[in-house]
Design brief:
Strand order of the largest sheet: 9-8-7-6-2-3-1-10
Number of domains: 2
Strand content: 15-25%
Shape: elongated
Number of strands: 10
Largest sheet: 8 strands, mixed
Amino acid sequence: MSKDIKTKFSTLYVLPEVMKKIIYYTQAADGEVSGLGTIMKDGEKRLIVDKVFLLEQESSAGDTELDSEAISKLLTDMIMAKEDPGRVKFWWHSHGNMGVFWSGQDDECAEKLSKEYAFSLVVNKDNELRCRLDLYNPFRITVDGIKVREMTEDDEFLKKACKEEVEKKVRSTTPYYQTRNWKERDNYGPFFPKDESFWGKTDLKENEVKDVIRLLDIVEDNITLGGQFYMETWNEYIRDTLREVTKTKYKKKAECTEFGTWGEDYAACKRCKIAKTCKEHTEYWEKEDEIENERKEPDISEEEARAEKELRGEEDFSRKELEKEGKK
């Protein structure tokens, strides 16, 4: 597996002031209370809750419901302030004096949080907390037991002193690997440990995990263009997915190990029973890749394009046609 999906989503970081606000809101409310928050990604690609919002709401000892107009106003205010409302991917709420768990109403609310992903946090007056991640595309997955880590400012003086003390007192030996944790995991890899505090509504198979990772990689590649909000991100993912499905379907029937690589002079292709099908897919994918490469190439002027063709010894079709018209 190219990347470990757990490293992307196992921990949610919260700024100290944000965590304090959530705790203080919870302590101040007579019953339950809830709100929203924004998530950012830092240079180390850590997901961080950097703001929380307390909105107008109806609240009781066992229920809390955000006002829809208040939510609309929040998103509108963010747009007016030139902030990205797409970063609102955090929902927090309290259970008052009760335990931290996911009620049926919590599950229903989680279904409406986002079209990509969202984190939910439930806390109580004893400062207990529980966090989950909901992924909505390309698969609907819920992962409970997400670690919540409050970020603290570095004490550079203490950090340096500790480093010097480690260098003085700790002698490095040959590293070894602990395998105990791997024995506690199920067949779906590190994304779903057997620990009951870390479970998912949908168990991912190996190929499904790879699909999720592939989507995340594409999103990261297009992050400067809008990430998951960039239409080409999804177009690219759909194209790749369809190719993988097709290759898997014909893999066992093909003479070679890679369906979609047809060649007229290849010996394996000449005796392959599905050569015609492979040829059609190969030509279609090559044309598709050509269109995609042209889309990614920078725009150049007609004169630059003509000069480039002349350097390659190619005729400029459009100019040739114009010359014919002039002679007529």
